[in-house]
Every structure is written in C-alpha cells, then in structure tokens.
C-alpha cells in the first residue's frame, strides 16, 4: 500500500456560521477553476452532488462513503483524492460526521479549456514513449492515493484560492493548475502500471521495465541494463521515465525496496539489518537514512509500531 500524503486541514466553521450541517459549501472562484470547501457536521446518507466541470475532490478530515458510476460505495479518507467527470452524480454517505468530528473535503472544479490546453501541450512537447499512447485524464483510474507531489500542488492551489489577494492570483492559479494536471496524470500512470504491469509488459516497454525491477528488486539493478531493456539511450530512458511517472528509475527502485523492507519489518522475527539486505539495500546506514526520509520514521520505530 503506498504512503498516503494528507493535505493540510483548514479551520472548521463555528456552528453559527453554517447554513446547513450537511455539506455546507464555501466557494472561491477563479478564472479557470473554482475551489469548494465542504463541511458536514452530522451523520447523513445519500447526499447528492454534481458539477458541470471535471472535479478533483480531496478529503481533508473525517470519512465519507462515495457512490459513483452506479457502483457499490467505497470508503473515502484523508490522504486520498477522487476525480469526478462533468455532470456525474455523486451520492455521499457521512456515517461518522458529528459536530465535534466533522468531515471536510475540497472539490476543485477545473475548466474544460484548461484541461484541453494542458493535455495538448503535453502531447505536443512531451509525447509518450509508445506511439499509440497519449496524455489524458483516465476516468477509469478515478480513486487515487495522494503522493507527496500531488499533495503539495493541491495544498498550493488551496492557499492561492483562499489566501492570495493580489492581482496575479489568476495567473498563479493557472500555472498551479497546469502542474496539478501533470501530477494527476503521472499519479494515474503509476497506479495503472502498478496494478497491471504483468498484463502490459508484452506491449509497453515501461511496464516491461517495472516487471523486471519488481522481479529483481532483491538484487543489484544496473540502470544501463534497464535502458537497454527499454531499447532506449540512457538519457532518453531517464527523461521519458520521469516525464511519464514523475520520478526517476533510481527513485522508483528505492521506493520499491522501502516498500519491501516495510513488509519484512512487520515480521518481528526480522531485524532491521535483515530487512535491509533482504530488500536489496547494500548499506545499512544508507537504508536507515533513506527509510526515514521516505516514511518519516526510522526502520526500528516503524517496526515497533507495526508489530
């Protein structure tokens, strides 16, 4: 399970400032987007919500159960985001909302023009490796776990929408929206490949690379060998991998090794040193530093909390 990066919570409103206890809405309108902050202070079921534009929603606090596309509801928690297409009806349950424990969620409605111009720019200047692949927002990959880059840019857009008072506000928001869309598509690409790399490996060179990395993660992995397997020069391989996924092949290998080390650390029979080398790290001190930077805890502290 990838690490969930939670967004910065906003102050909740006092009850006398609320027009309703269920999905009270505060709206901040800009040229290319509208930020909506929703608060719910009592339990409720099947609350309807729909937007004219594509919406990125992100949970700040509490728990919802989301019903989308006529499918069974799913838990929606802080550290997660959901992409909702234009005119798609959301049905939302609030099983735990209370006056002292409200839910809080943002819904960022993004203009279709902003999406189209950003996607067209990416397809023109940064074409994907596979000829039949294009940049696009995948509406099938709608439930996302926030990574650090995605959480950072959403937080920045919230600050611009709510706090910025200068005349350049719309310009700043437009630039941030462009980055947000890139991060969204990179996050979707990573989740798609993580879930389907085996089936995609025969037709997509990056899926083939991810499959090889996962199968070889406990061994030393030669980056030059990866570029050879992708039938690309080293420079092109690095550049295109980072464009499509948001981080370098070396970063991906590190994250995979830390994910594996976490699995080993959950077993009390494994020491930190054993987890380090079993996950493919060659140096214990480097492993401890890298683990703490990625997870926020030392390997030992992580193990003590998860046994």
Structure description:
Helix content is 45%, strand content 18%. It has 307 residues and is an alpha+beta fold. The chain has helices at 112-125, 148-163, 169-200, 205-216, 223-229, 234-245, 249-265, 272-278, 284-295, 299-306; strands at 24-29, 33-40, 44-49, 54-61, 64-67, 74-76, 80-84, 90-94, 103-110, 143-145. The protein is built from 10 helices and 10 strands. The radius of gyration is 21 Å and the shape is globular. It has a 6-stranded antiparallel beta sheet with strand order 1-2-9-4-7-10. The protein has a 4-stranded antiparallel beta sheet with strand order 3-8-5-6, with no helix packed on it. 30% of the residues are buried. Strand 1 and strand 2 form a beta hairpin.
Features of the shown structure:
globular; alpha+beta; 10 strands
| Total E-strand runs | 10
Q: What is the terminal separation in angstroms?
A: 17 Å
Strand content: 15-25%
The class by helix and strand makeup works out as alpha+beta
Give helix and strand order, one letter per element, not per position.
EEEEEEEEEHEHHHHHHHHH
Alpha plus pi helix count: 10
Biggest beta sheet attributes: 6 strands, antiparallel
Helix content: 40-55%
Instruction: Name the overall outline.
Output: globular
Give the low-pLDDT segments: none
Mean pLDDT, as a whole number? 94
Strand order of the largest sheet: 1-2-9-4-7-10
Radius of gyration: 21 Å
């Amino acid at each position: 399970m990838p690490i969930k990066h939670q967004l910065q919570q906003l102050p909740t409103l006092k009850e006398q400032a609320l027009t309703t206890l269920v999905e009270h809405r505060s709206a901040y309108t800009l040229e290319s987007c509208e930020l909506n902050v929703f608060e719910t202070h009592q339990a409720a079921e099947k609350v309807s919500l729909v937007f004219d534009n594509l919406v990125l929603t992100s949970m700040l606090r509490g728990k919802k159960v989301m019903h989308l596309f006529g499918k069974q509801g799913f838990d929606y928690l802080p550290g997660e985001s959901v992409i909702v297409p234009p005119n798609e009806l959301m049905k939302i349950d609030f099983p735990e909302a209370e006056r002292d424990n409200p839910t809080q969620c943002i819904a960022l409605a993004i203009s279709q023009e902003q999406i189209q111009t950003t996607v067209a720019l990416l397809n023109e200047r940064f074409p994907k490796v596979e000829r039949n692949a294009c940049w696009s927002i995948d509406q099938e990959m709608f439930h996302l776990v926030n990574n650090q880059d995605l959480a950072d840019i959403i937080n920045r857009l919230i600050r611009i929408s709510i706090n910025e008072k200068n005349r350049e506000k719309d310009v700043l928001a437009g630039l941030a929206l462009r980055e947000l869309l890139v991060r969204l598509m990179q996050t979707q690409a990573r989740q798609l490949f993580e879930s389907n790399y085996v089936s995609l490996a025969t037709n997509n060179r990056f899926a083939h690379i991810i499959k090889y990395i996962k199968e070889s993660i406990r061994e030393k992995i030669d980056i030059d060998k990866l570029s050879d397997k992708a039938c690309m020069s080293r420079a092109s391989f690095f550049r295109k991998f980072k464009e499509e996924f948001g981080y370098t092949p070396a970063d991906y290998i590190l994250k995979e090794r830390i994910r594996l080390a976490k699995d080993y650390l959950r077993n009390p029979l494994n020491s930190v040193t054993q987890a380090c080398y079993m996950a493919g790290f060659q140096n214990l001190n480097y492993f401890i530093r890298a683990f703490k930077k990625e997870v926020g805890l030392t390997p030992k502290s992580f193990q003590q909390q998860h046994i």
